[in-house]
Structure formats: structure tokens, C-alpha cells
Amino acid sequence: MLGSIAAVSFAIGSSVAGIVTESQIEYIISQDGPLTTYRGRVTFYKTADNPAPTFSHVFNIPVGEVIGSKVSNDPWVPMIGDWATWSNDFKGNLSVRWVCLHPSVNPITGEVMQQYPVWSPLNFSFHVQKTSFNGSDLADLLDDWGTSSVWDLDHDGIVGGSDIALLIGNWQSSEP
Fold first, then answer.
1. CA dist list (Å): 37 to 22, 120, 124, 132, 160
2. Which domains, and CATH codes, for the chain?
3. Among 99, 101, 90, 89, which Cα is nearest to 56's?
């Protein structure tokens, strides 16, 4: 069952005639069972004065475990970027800092071959999996019993006994 979807866009700086002149982030948030998914793009604005910009953003996330997709080169690991650092304070904030690499230089002359300005996009995707559950979550898990669904809490490929054990082990008497 698909819940809500929200689109968010942040720009640092300004735009002239629709052209972004600073780095920006845009992302969509969707809810599906115990997973809240964040998918988007950071666009770096590189100039000769700033050929390797950084961009930081704090996501307001539900309390839970930050994970990645089961279908990726690195299953269950968040796809945030090779040059990103991130931290989850487990109180509803995920801080991410992306760092753009310096452009390569000509090995003979040492000059930068990049033309400026340039916009460099980086896609990202991560999930936040709930870590506290209640009766409605139990009903949803049981509806997906024996399938490969978002209620596969232990990431073994199928909803089964160990998933119900995780759910019961993190039971909350009221909605978190």
C-alpha cells in the first residue's frame, strides 16, 4: 500500500532567468509500509573560483534505520554518493555532506581542462525503515506473509518468522 508522496526543493544562492547559479538539492519522499524513501539529486554548481564545491543538507526523517535498496550494486547500503559523509542522530535528523572532487588536470601542462561554469548532478536514494511497530503494522506484515515485500524487515528476501520476531521485539503500545 502506497502512502504519501512529497516533493522538496532547496537552492543555495540565486537564479538568473531560470539558470541556477549555486548548488541545489531536489528530492521526493514516499511512504510504503515500514519504509520512507528519499530519492533525489544534488546539483553542484562549479566555477573557476570554486571547482570543487560542497553541499550539506539535513533531512528531517522518521526515527528508524537508514538503509538502501535491496536492488543495487551494494544491497541495503544507502546510495548517497561515494564522496558523501552522513550521520543519523536517531532523533529525526540525517545530516549529509557531499564533496565534489577537483577536476582533473592535463598531465603534461598541469592546466585544468574544464570549462566553467558547469553543473554536475549526483543522484541519491535511501530508505528509513521503522524500528518501532504496533497492531496495524502486524496486520500489514501478516498480509504480506510468504512474499518479497517491504515488510521483509530482516532483508532475507521473504516475509516470514524472523520478520514477525523483529516486529514483536520492537512493539510499542501506541503509534510512535
1. 26, 23, 11, 17, 23
2. 2-131 (2.60.40), 133-176 (no CATH)
3. 99
Query: What values do phi and psi take at 126, rounded to 5?
Result: -155, 160
Tell me how far apart the alpha carbons of residues 88 and 65 are, in angstroms, rounded to a whole number.
9
Using alpha carbons, select from 22, 25, 18 the residue that is nearest to residue 119.
22
Residue 161 DSSP symbol: H
Tens digits of residue pLDDT in 79-101: 998 888 999 988 899 999 999 88
Amino acid occupying residue 102? H
Strands (E), the chain: 2-11, 15-16, 19-20, 24-32, 35-46, 54-60, 64-67, 84-88, 93-99, 118-130
Sign of the Cα torsion 15, 18, 24, 30 reads positive
> Structure pTM?
0.80
* Mean local confidence (pLDDT), 11-23: 58
Distance CA 50, CA 52 (A): 6
Q: Which residues pair with 10 in a beta bridge?
A: 25
Distance CA 123, CA 117 (A): 20
